[in-house]
Amino acid sequence: MSSLTKAEIGKALAERFGVTVAIGEDITEEVFRQITLALTYGQRVELRGFASWEVKQRGAKVGRNPRAGESVPVPPKKAIKFKASPKLIAAIN
Predict the structure, then answer these.
(1) Is residue 70 over pLDDT 80?
(2) pLDDT per residue over 11-48, tens digit each?
(3) Which domains does the chain have, with CATH numbers?
(4) Three-class SS string for 5-27?
(5) Are 64 and 70 in contact (CB under 8 A)?
């Protein structure tokens, strides 16, 4: 099983819309840049029929070092929550 790259997405856009591969790659890069920027500012991103992303704050906790077995403090951090749309889930199944 292979993976899909940004370059391949750019090439597919170029073929679909009759533009150069460079323009297709620029469009792909800009879409990902906008998603990243929105998440950086704490905004929720939703692409209807595909998925949504949002930043969630995780609280501090006490973890465990598996080697030594001792407790270690884990600081609070932000994590990205990804949720696939029902349409995407149906397409996969």
Answers:
(1) yes
(2) 999 999 999 999 999 999 999 999 999 999 999 999 99
(3) 1-43 (no CATH), 47-93 (4.10.520.10)
(4) CHHHHHHHHHHHHCCCHHHHHHH
(5) yes
Quick one: tokens of 7?
């370059």
What pLDDT score does 1 carry? 64
Distance CA 37, CA 31 (A): 10
Number of C-beta neighbours around residue 14 at 10 A: 19
Q: E strands within the chain?
A: 45-47, 51-58, 61-64, 71-74, 77-84
- The residue type at 37: L
**If you compute the radius of gyration of the chain from its CA atoms, what whole number of angstroms results?**
19
Tell me the per-residue pLDDT of 55-64, one tens digit each, with 9 for 90 and over: 999 999 999 9
